[in-house]
Amino acid sequence: MNCLVIGGTQFIGRALVAELLKAGHKVSVLHRKPKHGLGRRVGNIGADRNDLKAMKAALAGKNFDVVFDHVYDWERGTTAAHIEGTIRALAGNLQRYIFVSSVAAYGDGLNHHEADALAPDDAAELYVRNKAMSERALFRMHARSGLPVVTLRPPFVYGPNNPLYREAYFWDRLRAGRSIIMPGDGRRLMQFVYVKDLVRASLTAMNTPAAIGHAFNIANQKPVSQMELVELLGKVCRKPVEFVRIPRGQITRAGGHPMGPKMYFGIYLDMPPITQITAKAQRILKFKPTDFEDGLKETYKWYLRNSPFGKQDYSFEDALLANAPALPRVLPGAK
Predict the structure, then answer these.
(1) How many CA atoms lie within 13 A of 188 on its CB side?
(2) Is the separation of the CB atoms in 41 and 27 below 8 Å?
(3) pLDDT tens column, 48-79
């Protein structure tokens, strides 16, 4: 098939391009830069997807069987209008439009099924309302014109080449023998999905007629608490874990923020919990996630060879830790 990957030059998109090529598909990527580093077999289309005129010009006369929409503009936001404009710019007999949404589209809450209501149009967070509104627009287009859309709702995506400072955040500190700041009691739940599993789900959605017109939760079946996550990361790198609990209010008053620059628990990881049920993806897409520890082991191998994050400034954390009581928590068998 002739495939277009929107946002195909980083993390999820890059992994998807590699698998599409491996499967023998023709692949092009659409991104803002004039060139990509994905090799000669991958076509290059330059455009800012938030610029509707630029998108229309870039896609004029081009036909694709499948479009994978992976990109989100974190600085300006990517709206439902941008998504609709992209679809209108596409010509030909589109067989599938696969949109990577997010568990954040639900807004908040635990154990979400795909039929649950998404966040309202006036949701406080821009990312949340953009993802929810984009999905609503896509399913309206499906109902009105038969757009062959599939949406995927992953939680936190982890794996090799992750550009977000998450797994590496903790491995840097554990390998340096530092205590890990635990905001609150460490019981907030998080759910993850391995990047390769999300890519496999995308490829399956491309080839499964029954997926058209549906949303799918794509995640590890079991959420983990913040404390469980760090303990598992410590087990993977074989380092002891020492937690220091600090109230969130104290962290916030000191200037801490989940997105940084005064970060204290990996970028955006200290958020109110949103979890999901994956039974539908298991049934229709035959989705079977990689064991979390196995996926983290592969990610740790990449981290040891390629971690791009460089030397860290621990001064903010040091100030928080200065007067906080430590809570030793050493993993059995850690060295």
Answers:
(1) 18
(2) yes
(3) 988 999 999 999 989 999 999 988 988 899 99
